[in-house]
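Students often ask why inverse folding is considered easier than folding. One informal answer: many sequences map to the same fold, so there is more than one right answer. In these notes we will look at a single instance of the problem. The structure comes first.
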């Protein structure tokens, strides 16, 4: 029976269609008005009204692949009714005779799919991940770099972790390696690590309004002073720095971070590089502990966004 409703060939396409259904409705003025008026009681009015506001082309496209009514489609998408009431499929497209949802496409094609969708709809994208791409396998890392280059006008920021230190990296144009095109913020970790203070970061992002760039306007880093916390037997958090204030930056566009790198290169043994290293360790060590070669390696990491790139620091 299931096969007569939805063929295996259409599984992934149907899943993508449902994602588009949900995305377009949540971006609609109707949904935002309901959110504003109902606050925490958003579910009942959505379940009552969303099937009257969905894009018609999405409804037609989905209904050609199933026997669900528009109201049933809405109920499944927004979880208004139990999945068991609709055994054909649910929001994640599960089937009663198939315990697992259809496999997701490999990450790069899926990423390209949504970046293209955002570009077509004049939207901006933040990429959030755990491992920075330069820590990944060579093939993935270099292909990811190409994707970032292609969608530089759509991607408003990249945010990663994993390394525990406070870092950043500038992505450069593949054709003109001197032109910065994107920013990777590699945030400090709150988890403890040897020779580092715990820390976290608060980003200020260009607001949600028509024509917003969604770029990072500034970021503020807070650290837990382990030495003071142990002495006074209480958790002590302190503001460590803000990017624009500490580095005398007018903005935080890729060009501004590239300018910061050039200023550090031109005075590699100077106080600015010392400050950056101190922040790199979340104020655990003084910048004076990082000598010339240490500073060269740190500068290189700020320009390296592909794994095993032999020319990143030329």
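Output (designed amino acids):
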């Amino acid at each position: 029976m299931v096969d007569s409703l939805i063929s295996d060939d259409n599984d992934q396409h149907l899943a993508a269609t449902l994602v588009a259904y949900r995305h377009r409705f949540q971006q609609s003025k109707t949904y935002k008005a309901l959110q504003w008026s109902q606050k925490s009681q958003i579910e009942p009015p959505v379940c009552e009204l969303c099937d009257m506001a969905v894009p018609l082309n999405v409804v037609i496209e989905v209904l050609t692949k199933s026997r669900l009514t528009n109201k049933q489609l809405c109920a499944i998408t927004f979880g208004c009714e139990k999945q068991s009431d609709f055994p054909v499929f649910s929001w994640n497209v599960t089937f009663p005779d198939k315990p697992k949802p259809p496999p997701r496409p490999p990450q790069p094609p899926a990423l390209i799919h949504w970046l293209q969708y955002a570009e077509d709809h004049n939207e901006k994208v933040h990429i959030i991940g755990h491992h920075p791409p330069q820590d990944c396998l060579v093939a993935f890392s270099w292909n990811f770099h190409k994707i970032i280059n292609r969608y530089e006008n759509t991607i408003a920021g990249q945010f990663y972790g994993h390394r525990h230190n406070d870092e950043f990296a500038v992505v450069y144009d593949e054709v003109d390696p001197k032109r910065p095109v994107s920013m990777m913020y590699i945030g400090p970790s709150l988890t403890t690590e040897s020779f580092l203070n715990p820390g976290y970061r608060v980003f200020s992002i260009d607001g949600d309004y028509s024509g917003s760039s969604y770029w990072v306007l500034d970021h503020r880093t807070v650290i837990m002073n382990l030495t003071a916390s142990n002495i006074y037997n209480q958790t002590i958090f302190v503001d460590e720095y803000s990017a624009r204030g500490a580095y005398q930056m007018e903005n935080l566009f890729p060009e501004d971070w590239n300018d910061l790198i050039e200023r550090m290169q031109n005075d590699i043994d100077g106080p600015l590089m010392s400050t950056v290293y101190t922040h790199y360790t979340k104020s655990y060590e003084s910048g004076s502990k990082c000598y010339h070669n240490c500073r060269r390696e740190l500068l290189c990491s700020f320009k390296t966004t592909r794994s095993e790139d032999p020319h990143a620091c030329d």
